[in-house]
Amino acid sequence: MVKSYLRYEPAASFGVVASNDSNISYDSSGKHLLSPALEKVGVWNVRQGVCVKTLALLSTSSRGGPSLAVTSIASTTTFQVAVGYADGSVRIWDCNTGTCETTLNGHKGAVSALRYDNSGSNLASGGKDNDIVLWDVVGDETTGRFRLLGHRDQVTDVVFLDNDKKLVSSSKDKFMRLWDLETKYCMQIISGHHSEIWSIDVDSEERYLVTGSADPELRIYTIKHESAGELQGSDNSGAESKWEVLKLFGEIQRQNKDRVGTVRFDKSGDLLACQVAGKMVEIFRVLDEAEAKRKAKRRVHRKKEKKGKSATRSAENGDTVSLPGEESAALVVTVTDVFKLLQTLRTSKKICSISFSPVKPKSGLATLALSLNNNLLEVHSIETETTTKTYSVELPGHRSDVRSVTLSSDNTLLMSTSHNAIKIWNPSTGSCLRTIDSGYGLCGSFVPGNRFALVGTKEGKLEIIDVGSGTCIEVVEAHGGSVRSIATLPDGSGFVTGSADHDVKFWEYVLPQKPNQGSKHLSVTNDRTLKMNDDALWVAISPDSKYIAVALLDCTIKVHFMDTLKFFLSLYGHKLPVLCMDISSDNALMVSGSADKNLKIWGLDFGDCHKSIFAHADSVMAVKFVDNTHYMFSVGKDRVVKYWDADKFELLLTLEGHHAEIWCLAVSSLGDFIVTGSHDRSIRRWDRTEEPFFIEEEKEKRLDEMFEADVDSSFESRYALKAEVPEDGVVGVAGKKTKETLTATDAIIDALDIAEVELQRMDEHKAEKAGGKFQPNIIMLGLSPSDYVLRSLSNVPTNDLEQTLMALPFSDALKLLVYLKDWASKPDKVELVSRVNTVLLQTHHNQLISTPAARPIMTSLSDVLYPTVKQFKEVLGFNLAALDHIKQIMSSRSDAPFRDAKKRLLEVRSHQTKRLAARTPAKEERQKKKQKSSGAGA
Fold this sequence. Notes:
By secondary structure, this protein is an alpha+beta fold. A hairpin with a 3-residue loop joins strand 35 and strand 36 (461-466).
């Protein structure tokens, strides 16, 4: 009988507050901060330090491939949040419900920039594929409008201008481009930067546009707002300058010479923050027109005074100096008159991203949130003279790599170590229970009873931790080198440590009584030492306490008897040092993982190597057996977890989820879950399910995945000549070819074939003039052939329709055009028919005009489609005019200006929330007074 195994699947991920690959952003209310956490987005209430919601796709399969990192976040005035991912997809989330509303596939590389327009109806996305895609996100069906091609390198930022009619994009190719979104044309190419442009932003009144790069200065551009009529009525002598919307205003010298990371205006446009790729944020005050003119006058006055003094000195010396026409010269406002350095904010670690709160605080100028590269969020209050840190989120995660994870004997506690802290977690919920300051912990272990824990540090010390109180009760100077491994004795009386000082030490637990304390505290004492001839990298003890195995830096494993410490075996075979080992619970097998990427399975009876397996694509960092089995897990620097059968030497499962090297691994005593810690600072739990699987099926699935991966990087696509994009840019179709679009294309082709066969059967039935009733095909679900094809076409997601139709062969496209005439008579399908018709005509234009059979189809379609579209256009125009008329009537009847109902509703909600928040403290005070008065009366 074929043996089956139980599948392990990703269950939880915790420990990440803010990852470094994406920006942070406030939501529209200003109460929550959206922070990237690898493949998730955490919605943080920073004031309380609580993650109230997580925007994450449910991962239900271990075979779903690696999880995708969040690379960009954008929020809008409504509760929508757009999140860009490393695979080029953009997902629109509802921040209230935490659900994903739609997925947009348009980029072939990671999404590097996202920006909503002012109304929140359009979304611009820029990617590492050098393209910009415009998305229409209004309504239930989100569609891609078009693609803008022109940049020669990664798009770094985008911003809307001129009532969302124009778009400015920046790129690593050192150029900015100004696009007219109505004509889909690149109006202006702005040069001048000597290095990559990393960020751009515009103030709320669209007066100034700021760009930041690796240059030592910020460049400020003025924005010219002119109507199309004024442009057409101008003379042609200055045609080029008339179309010059962005004009260089000046440059501001930066204090820090590192490259700019982000430049952002606050919502009012009074402040400009420039974050560099270091530990500093420069905050500038943007003066209004009157203040700028006053400052310019003072500057001119000081200049005149200096010149006057120099003229007086020259006159005293007998020289004649004239000051021609300075008083009549026009006052010129320069960039230094408008932008004034207010203050500089410095942090302890490098800053990854910044975001201004959309709500202005009661005290202070603005609120600025920072994400640091050590997994930390900070909120600073910007005042006129100082900047103060008001809140920070740091407890839920480590500041650096997770170097070891250890489970308690009852699997209810998890201990993790990093370079300066020990954290105790609840592995089932992912909540952090304790944080203890420590040295650089490389290994750890729980003491039997789970009241205490041990941590071996890089400094060679042993730290004894009281788990209940979360304190370090003793630090023991254990070794002269770093403590690399801690192995607990099977009888629970002590443990063994291996160190870089060539010593393997045996320790016993003792409970000494302190003279001034009534309770006893745990301590340890060294009773034996085993001297080795090289660094001890790992120590493993057999469950029967018969052998102790020590992995050395010289690539060998030395096995000694536990009782006498006499030498028993030396295991050779690894080409690089052994980094991890484990012995099975029945003492029969030992597995070792090495920096040479191999796993070796040894027999402990004779020391023979049963099998050498090329296991990982990089160093194997940890390996563990599941208790009472010969199944084992291994992790490595290649970011994957692998599940093995040590008897059959077979790979059972590959679990992908981490975004960086995996350093450590812990397996529960029952084998029902495992925990891994990584360089990406996340701790992940993988649970065993009740779903069985078979080895052969998994092998076939892995081969299929390899084949599908090769399809995308096939010879034709890899070596095909790429079309050269002209200097002024071109417009392309939004969206990209995916598995979903190819599946939808196949479904349409199948529906066309079934409908064609059904039409033939109906014609034959009519020709035979049989008396019996016609029996329709049961697959068509009682629909007519036309409705059946329409059903399959309507099932295609709106944003995938273009790519689906472009993959149709010409013969099937011709069949589909025949049905459009019938569908055009249905009012709710006119838009779909128009889109299908446009895409098919653009794709197959040359073949259609050269195919005689297509001419009658096109003629009949033009006779029907043009009048129908014109009719619905008139209806829509009439309705828009009627709504505009109603708006004017309401405005004339009321003194109050007409407001959008949705915006008004949001304002009412925010006002009610503020009132409730203000009432709560007053209510609590009244309750306290009542309690005091009742207590006094009693």
